[in-house]
Amino acid sequence: MRYMFLLYGSDGPRPEFGTEEYHQMFQAYSEATSAMAEAGVLIDCAPLQPAAASTTVRVRDGETLLTDGPAAEIKEQLGGYTLVECADLDEALKWAATMPAARDGAVEVRPVIDVEVPA
After folding, report:
1. Residue 77 above 90 pLDDT?
2. Averaged over 5-20, what is the pLDDT?
3. Taking a C-beta distance cutoff of 8 angstroms, is the pair 102, 32 a contact?
4. Could you tell me the fold of the domain covering 2-111?
5. What is the C-alpha to C-alpha distance for residues 119 and 110, in angstroms, rounded to an integer?
6. pLDDT level of residue 50 (50, 70, 90 thresholds)
7. Domain range annotation of the chain
8. What are the angstrom distances between the C-alpha of 38 and each of 30, 42, 52, 56, 103?
9. How far is CA 33 from CA 2, 15, 48, 69, 77, in A?
């Protein structure tokens, strides 16, 4: 079964590229995802731009409404995702606990519903 890890962190600034803090963060994520790849469970993963770079789309009464920023005001922001294929939820939770976001933010683990996408 596929599981999506939604990686949440504080809404504060991220470590700047090239700093020691950035290198440590990158190394921690690299170690976690490399272990998943070696175990054969990793499908895909990527960081996201900050929430301030997002645009929220809503359609109300046939009118498309665009808002700069995230859909909700929350203390923790979605910062990335990891998609894995695991035997069951217990295995997925084990891998989620290896993500650095679990130590200083949160990792939401959601089963993915398999649907046929029309060609």
Report:
1. no
2. 85
3. no
4. Alpha-Beta Plaits (3.30.70)
5. 26
6. confident
7. 2-111
8. 12, 8, 34, 36, 22
9. 15, 19, 16, 28, 20
Q: Exposed/middle/buried for 2, CB within 10 Å: 0-12, 13-18, 19+?
A: middle
Cα separations in angstroms, 26 against 16, 18, 29, 38, 72: 11, 10, 5, 18, 27
DSSP collapsed to 3 states, 24-59: HHHHHHHHHHHHHHHHCCEEEEEECCCHHHCEEEEE
How confident is the model over 60-77, as a mean pLDDT? Answer: 84
Report pTM: 0.85
- Please give the DSSP secondary-structure letter assigned to residue 100: T
